[in-house]
Task: inverse folding
């Protein structure tokens, strides 16, 4: 009986902390996280043929907070992500997070896993990332070239005689 009461109190506390979060930012200010179940997000990705990624984090993870504060709020990152991806934010401390992580076995935070719209895993990124690195990975995993400059090969320099 004590265990059931402890679980009920823990669930109630987690529910209260999720409602205490700030209101979602506008599309230009931050990455928009999918509002719904993981299953619904995957179905939406298939329906609209849109790739997605999962952000694995936890409330105690300082690098996760830094990513949300400094990287996910960058205008270029937010606009590109909101235009080209669905994003699912997964808290590994929640019951849902633990259940979903049984499939992926993520053990280092923060972690971002990229998928195509069919659910095929494309790439896994781990650790605190800077804006330029994440932007490059977002474009690459969406199948969009970085820039024409990167696509051109340098012409070899021939020695003068």
Result:
């Amino acid at each position: 009986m004590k265990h059931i009461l402890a679980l009920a109190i823990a669930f109630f506390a987690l529910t209260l902390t999720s409602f205490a979060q700030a209101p979602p930012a506008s599309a230009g200010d931050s990455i928009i996280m999918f509002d719904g179940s993981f299953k619904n997000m995957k179905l939406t990705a298939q329906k609209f043929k849109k790739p997605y990624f999962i952000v694995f984090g936890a409330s105690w993870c300082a690098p996760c907070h830094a990513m949300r504060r400094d990287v996910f709020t960058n205008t270029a990152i937010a606009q590109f992500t909101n235009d080209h991806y669905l994003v699912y934010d997964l808290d590994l401390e929640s019951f849902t997070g633990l259940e979903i992580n049984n499939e992926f076995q993520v053990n280092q935070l923060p972690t971002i896993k990229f998928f195509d719209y069919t659910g095929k895993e494309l790439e896994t990124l781990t650790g605190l990332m800077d804006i330029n690195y994440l932007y490059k990975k977002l474009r690459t995993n969406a199948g969009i070239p970085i820039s024409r400059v990167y696509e051109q090969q340098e012409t070899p320099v021939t020695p003068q005689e």
Notes: The domain at 47-142 is CATH 3.40.30.10 (Glutaredoxin). DSSP finds seven helices and four strands in the chain. Confidence is low (pLDDT under 50) at residues 3-27, 149-161.
